[in-house]
Protein 1
Amino acid sequence: MNSLWTDILNFILPPRCLKCGKILKENTGLCTECFGEINFITTPYCHKCGHPLETVVSHDSKILCGNCLKKTRHLFRLSRSAFSYDEASKGLIVGFKFNDKTENAKFLAQTMFVAGADIFAVGIDVIVPVPLHLTRLISRRYNQSALLAKQLAKLSGCPVDNTSFIKHRRTRPQVELNGIARVRNVKGAFSVKYPEKIEGKRILLVDDVLTTGSTLKECALALKRAGAKSVDTLTAARVI
């Protein structure tokens, strides 16, 4: 019955490419041409932070980038992103985040699920979206990270916690800032409201874009202070 209603709906309102608007035969999210333009992040990449690497002559799947080799302390167990944030993908993210194109969440989460396969393989206990401050949530009407988390929960079978982790201090949009200003902007802005739901858990922290990593690092610090066993991060896109 569900298949019949889907066929009827697709006949009346045929699925369209999320990027160019072309009518699709199947609801795959993007047409073949637009899909081919997206710069998906594939191996080789750093096993720890997920940053793409130049072609390396090695069969070691756990090779690290120079930055991760230098670090003695890692906030994240693993960090993964589905594709590069560039001119080819920018419209998908901006439309989803600022222009009410919430239908993009399903496709974005599908790409994230593939990109984060090794995170799900090593095991997580709960998916936690990066929260918005209440005033930002009211003005935007939805948290794009929470929509991605919901779709990832459907794909993985892992539960989502939308209430334990909060942003208690309002900050300037990170897009308006650069470098050290981003770090200062979010410092101390997040906290765990219900630590008993976080303590001892392997957390998958979900966001739409990784730029400098300032927001995700501050979130990870707050979660670990509350007793999280580990924190992995998964985003749809990242700035390379």
Note: The radius of gyration is 18 Å.
Protein 2
Amino acid sequence: MIAKSLRDYRRALAWWTVGISAFIGVYVGTYASVKQSPDVYGPAMVTKFPGPLKDLMGGLDDMTSGLGYLQTVVYQLFIPMLFIVCATLLANRALAAPEEAGTLELVVTLPVDRRRLVLARFAALVVALLVVAFVTLLVAWGVSEAVETGVTFDRILAAHTGVLLLGLFYGTVALAVGAATGRRMIASAVAGVWVAAGYMVVTIGRGVTAIDWLKWVSPFHYYAEGRPLYEGLPVGDYLVLAGATAVLALTAVLAFDRRDVGV
């Protein structure tokens, strides 16, 4: 069942891998020009941005340094969001899309255990995202070395691992909601609202006392708080993300096992 799911994903998986790799290649490659213009892209530029925009971009570090550039342009917002969209779309193909198309009803009439079916679809999602993460990691590291950002492979690996876990978490959110409702729009909406709210809480809302406590339910807090690009692998934070993903996968199994499937 895992192999079949991966075959179903193969075209979308290829496009997402190429697309994210191209994005990383173009934007990381641009650093070669940025570092030669410290007067334009240095600390003086950062001070010109309004506070809320700086918060939204994670503080806008000095973009003339390799670490600051990769953090601001690649790992703060754009690559995590691309991974999340990719994961959500693939997760919707696992259960919700086949149910809406009427093909899943036929599958569950076969002698296939429902729990095993959901776990197989989840495993296929994990493998698919691992493929995207592996290829894009090599691209990020290779281009980073080519333009001499000075960022070591272990730091890029730490940041990329966080991107993978973040994407997998939200993909599993979509999988769980799809398993419970059988509707792609609902699954995408729940994941999307959680993404937007979670990101706002740990950026613009960081200094707002009334909502500061919400950071503990924001996956972005566990992705970014440990500053993996600067300080290495934040094992504790990443374990929280992995554990929450496992709970969501179990929720998907239980929800789908107990629900009537139809169109």
Note: The chain is about 75% helix and 0% strand.
